[in-house]
Amino acid sequence: MNKYSIAISLAVLCSCTSTIISKEVIKEEAIVIDKDRPEIIEANIEKEPYDIWERIRVELTLTIPEDQIAATSIYRERLYSNQTAVNRISKSGQRYLYHTLSRAQDLNLPVELALLPFVESEFDPYAKSVDGATGIWQFLPATGREWGLKSNWWYDGKKDVMASTEAALGFLTYLNKKFEGDWLLAMAAYNAGPTRVNRAIRKNKNAGKSTRFWDLDLPKETTAYVPKLLVLCELIRDPDSFDVNLPSIANRAYFQKVKIPGQLDLMQAADLAGLKPETIYELNPGFNQWATDPSGPHYLLLPTGVSDRFITQLDSLDQDDLVRWDRYKIRRGDNLSRIASRYKIEVAVLKEINGMSSDLIIAGKEIMVPRGSAWANKQSPRERIYKVESGDSLWNISKKFKVSIEDIVLWNDLKIEKPLQINQAIKIFSRYERIRQDVPSKELRTMLYPVKSGDTVSRIASKFDIKASQIQEWNEIKDPSKIFPGQVLKLFL
């Protein structure tokens, strides 16, 4: 082999090697060989955006019309020079934005749709509105059912990031077709409902007026909804014009979807993955209890990079070590309430598991119970006895010990309507046993409140028995006199 052949071979080999180890997308690569002297022409390489904002920026298409710039200035002013609010936006998008963006692009939908959870919930899967809308996409129960999001004692698809994203993008696609390709009307209908938007369109048509989103008579919350999204898009396009720095979010998946063979205890899953239980719950908010739903979905979301360890550990487990159903032999004097309390589940769940239509049980017969909860009892049998004090209620006791009211009632066989007595003994189980409350308790305390006409910060604070200063802090409100109808405030109750 002559020296020129060797040079060419090395060049080709280097080229192939760089292609293998590089994550860059190579548009064109040329090797030009002169008869007298081999020469490698530098390849034209286009790098994948490192920052997710850069990836979004080049795909944005929706804009605010010139005649509406002044009308939307109030939303722009809330972000101008407000670095704290912008930091919060970036932080809230870290876990789930990559997924919503990727799915929107996979479906050839505008990337603006991937940003809607910022407006809906600030990407908080535990956020719950006053009218019962839940999850990052704020699905109402009826709409969730319509779009295939199942909900039961074990699982709530409205809080499942993957399931709710598919449902939301499907719903938005349907609305876009319904409103003849107008994405602003589709988004307005997502917020207010298609019936409400259709009614506003018909009203304007009959009056000979424009039927574009900006000219419709819609609820104040909806009137603010679309502009807030478009102003956020402006911020992403040009953060400098807002006099802020947009903190970077890496353009890579935060989590991976991992199949599981069946029902799995979530604390056990955390141990297998080498994670804190809180991390499991943060990425899998759809699971309401200590374990996954026995009827599915049979998957977990895990931080990118830990799935291999989890799968290896899971494969090494004996199937008997996974959550299974045990047979419980009914004893004389048992009732469903007592058995449910022992296994920390609801009576309705026991009945559902065993196909029971009544509360009647017979001593000597067997019923199925989830072994995982019994395992939790063995791991953490300790209980704390709390003596009721003057002024106590189930609500403040639940807050004091970071458990739910439902738990206290279940553990102590209480009736909610019956007042507590001073010195009454209340059993409180350890937080380890009810570790699910560490994160899902957010569901009980996070509320999205739309400001109504006549509302003030003080009045809202009084309504929910919280401090006005807290509302200002949570929502980055500099001047409490400048809240407006339609503005959505985040409250922690």
Produce the secondary structure layout.
Elements: H1 3-21, E1 25-28, E2 31-33, E3 38-40, E4 44-46, H2 52-57, H3 73-79, H4 83-92, H5 97-106, H6 116-120, E5 128-129, H7 141-146, H8 161-178, H9 183-192, H10 194-206, H11 220-237, E6 255-259, H12 266-273, H13 277-283, E7 299-303, H14 307-316, E8 325-329, H15 336-342, H16 347-353, E9 366-370, H17 371-379, E10 383-387, H18 394-401, H19 405-412, E11 425-429, H20 442-445, E12 446-450, H21 457-463, H22 468-474, E13 488-492
Parallel strand pairs: 5-12
Antiparallel strand pairs: 1-4, 2-3, 6-7, 8-9, 10-11, 12-13
Helix pairs in contact: 5-8, 8-9, 9-10, 9-11, 12-13, 21-22
Describe the structure.
The protein has 493 residues and is of the alpha+beta class. Among the domains are: 44 residues, no CATH class; 191 residues, Lysozyme (Orthogonal Bundle), CATH 1.10.530.10; 47 residues, LysM domain (Membrane-bound Lytic Murein Transglycosylase D, Chain A), CATH 3.10.350.10; 42 residues, Membrane-bound Lytic Murein Transglycosylase D, Chain A. The strands form six sheets. The protein has a three-stranded mixed beta sheet with strand order 5-12-13. It has a two-stranded antiparallel ribbon with strand order 1-4. The protein has a two-stranded antiparallel sheet with strand order 2-3. A hairpin with a 4-residue loop joins strand 2 and strand 3. Helix 21 crosses helix 22. The longest helix has 19 residues. The protein is globular, with a radius of gyration of 28 Å. The N and C termini lie far apart (78 Å). The N terminus is likely disordered.
